[in-house]
């Protein structure tokens, strides 16, 4: 029984997949959500999070797709492979961008000064104590030189108000800048890309297996971390563990006993079933599962 994709309004696809030096990326958050929720294409998030750029536990856009995922989306009419082309915009648009940038800088100055005043108000007693210590040190130096310094000068209070403290503007090079996903000073257009995949016998086998499993309703991701070509999930990988380690092998390629034992032990140790996949002479996909059984 083949999986039927939920019907959607045509304005949501085809999704644009950008080809950047043979890396296939989706930059739109809405498109990334659509390909996962509607088309069961998982991909891999490869970008840093704006609020936590120095960690690599949770990643963000762009979403990188493998070749099989890209070809499936294109063949099903859900996506198109494009190359981004940038064209210079007119001076009016460029000046509007610079004006918005200047307005953002001025707002940041005001916000910075407000925050700085709150911090100064909290630290005002310490600031006054520091000024007193500095003043008394200068008075001591004058007294050592022979001046007659009355005690009242040492005990005099220092009147200081937050408003009297000069707060310099932040430098423009230190301002926070919003990084857009598209170039703000250039017009973005897309040019369709011709792509020859699958081309080799190995690529054709991998894609045929990937497509067949997808049409059977599986979620599929890379299986490199478990020594296979793919991992197959019964549902979204965020909610389910994978059931199968998919290994693609040519139909006529000899398979020694050591390889079978290795794959069988691997599958058992990670509590998954290893599935050998091949294309027979008639072009039909053959599945063979390996399960470890004990000897009583």
Overall description:
It is a single chain. This protein is an alpha+beta fold and 296 residues long. Helices cover 35% and strands 21% of the residues. It has a 6-stranded mixed sheet. Helix 2 (67-75) crosses helix 5. The chain is elongated, with a radius of gyration of 33 Å. The two termini are 38 Å apart.
Strand and helix layout:
Elements: E1 15-20, E2 23-26, H1 29-37, E3 44-47, E4 60-65, H2 67-75, E5 79-88, H3 91-144, H4 151-155, E6 186-192, H5 201-215, E7 219-222, E8 230-233, E9 244-248, H6 257-269, E10 273-279, E11 285-290
Parallel strand pairs: 1-5, 9-10
Antiparallel strand pairs: 1-2, 2-4, 3-4, 5-6, 7-8, 8-9, 10-11
Helix pairs in contact: 2-5
Features:
296 residues, alpha+beta, 5-stranded mixed β-sheet, 6 helices, elongated, disordered N terminus
Q: Could you write a compact summary of the structure shown?
A:
The protein is α+β, with helices and mostly antiparallel strands and 296 residues long. The chain has helices at 29-37, 67-75, 91-144, 151-155, 201-215, 257-269, and strands spanning 15-20, 23-26, 44-47, 60-65, 79-88, 186-192, 219-222, 230-233, 244-248, 273-279, 285-290.
Cα(first) to Cα(last) distance is 38 Å
Low-confidence stretches: 1-10
Spatial strand order of the main sheet:
3-4-2-1-5-6
Q: How much of the sequence is in beta strands?
A: 15-25%
Give the overall average pLDDT: 87
């Amino acid at each position: 029984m083949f999986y039927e994709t939920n019907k959607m309004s045509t304005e949501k696809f085809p999704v644009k997949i950008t080809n950047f030096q043979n890396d296939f990326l989706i930059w739109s958050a809405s498109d990334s959500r659509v390909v996962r929720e509607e088309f069961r294409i998982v991909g891999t998030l490869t970008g840093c999070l704006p609020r936590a750029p120095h960690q690599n536990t949770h990643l963000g856009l762009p979403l990188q797709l493998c070749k099989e995922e890209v070809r499936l989306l294109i063949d099903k009419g859900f996506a198109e492979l494009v190359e981004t082309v940038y064209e210079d915009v007119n001076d009016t648009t460029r000046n509007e961008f610079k004006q918005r940038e200047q307005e953002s800088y001025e707002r940041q100055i005001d916000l910075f000064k407000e925050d700085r005043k709150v911090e100064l108000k909290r630290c005002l007693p310490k600031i006054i104590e520091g000024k007193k210590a500095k003043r008394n040190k200068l008075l001591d130096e004058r007294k050592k030189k022979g001046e007659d310094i009355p005690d009242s000068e040492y005990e005099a209070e220092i009147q200081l108000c937050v408003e009297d403290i000069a707060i310099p503007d932040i430098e423009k090079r230190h301002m926070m800048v919003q990084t857009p996903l598209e170039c703000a000073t250039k017009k973005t257009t897309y040019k369709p890309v011709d792509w020859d995949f699958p081309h080799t016998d190995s690529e054709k086998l991998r894609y045929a297996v990937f497509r067949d499993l997808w049409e059977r309703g599986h979620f599929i991701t890379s299986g490199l971390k478990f020594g296979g070509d793919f991992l197959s999930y019964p549902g979204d990988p965020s909610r389910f563990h994978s059931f199968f380690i998919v290994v693609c092998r040519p139909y006529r390629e000899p398979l020694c006993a050591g390889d079978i034992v290795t794959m069988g032990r691997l599958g058992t140790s990670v509590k998954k079933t290893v599935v050998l996949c091949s294309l027979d002479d008639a072009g039909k996909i053959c599945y063979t599962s390996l399960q470890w059984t004990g000897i009583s």
